[in-house]
């Protein structure tokens, strides 16, 4: 599986992705394109981390935004291209997430996902530990499932204030150092 396929599989039934693309068949087609474009826009800045399974295949993918690296226009353009007709549904969620981000420089975990058949084996935890180990800046992420909050709390992240975007609950989480 490519990194985009790993994320597509990991987010196949994610509440936010299900809101943006309610029809499962459409979501299955859209997610690989979304993640492919998002990965491409971040790889230029070295902010895509991969964990590999024992057989050498991609097990987990994390995409970050680091302080001082501005993805700006490229980020917006790839997002617009990937979302296509789903943009009107996605925009409130994007704006809601952006509004919760801290104003001070921070390490932002934009996305993390593990192949469904390898979940629970520590691959995502490895990616988070690796990135958090090399910096002293605060961190931030938005969990899209209440069930994932405890996982992120293990690394020191704390929910700031839950947010609702349409019918989807989001959990902004900050890591202060």
Automatic annotation (TrEMBL):
* InterPro entries in the cross-refs: Acyl_CoA_acyltransferase, GNAT_dom, Trichothecene_AcTrans
Q: Sorted alphabetically, which CDD domains does this protein's record hold?
A: NAT_SF
Taxonomy, superkingdom: Bacteria
User: Where does the N-acetyltransferase domain start and stop, copy by copy?
Assistant: 1-177
Query: Where is coiled-coil annotated?
Result: none
Q: SUPFAM superfamilies this protein is in? A: Acyl-CoA N-acyltransferases (Nat)
A molecular-function term among this protein's GO annotations: acyltransferase activity, transferring groups other than amino-acyl groups
Q: What is this protein called?
A: Acetyltransferase
Query: What is the organism of origin for this protein?
Result: Nocardia asteroides NBRC 15531
């Amino acid at each position: 599986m490519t990194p985009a396929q790993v994320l597509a599989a990991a987010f196949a039934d994610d509440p936010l992705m299900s809101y943006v693309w309610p029809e499962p068949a459409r979501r299955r087609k859209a997610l690989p394109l979304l993640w492919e474009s998002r990965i491409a826009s971040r790889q230029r800045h070295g902010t895509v981390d991969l964990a590999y399974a024992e057989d050498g295949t991609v097990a987990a993918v994390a995409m970050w935004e680091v302080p001082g690296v501005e993805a700006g226009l490229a980020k917006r353009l790839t997002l617009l291209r990937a979302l296509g007709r789903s943009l009107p549904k996605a925009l409130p969620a994007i704006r809601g997430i952006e509004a919760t981000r801290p104003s001070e420089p921070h390490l932002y975990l934009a996305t993390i996902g593990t192949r469904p058949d390898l979940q629970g084996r520590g691959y995502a935890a490895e990616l988070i530990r690796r990135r958090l180990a090399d910096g002293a800046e605060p961190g931030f992420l938005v969990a899209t499932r209440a069930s994932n909050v405890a996982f992120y709390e293990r690394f020191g992240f704390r929910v700031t204030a839950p947010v609702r975007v349409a019918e989807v609950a989001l959990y902004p989480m900050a890591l202060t150092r």
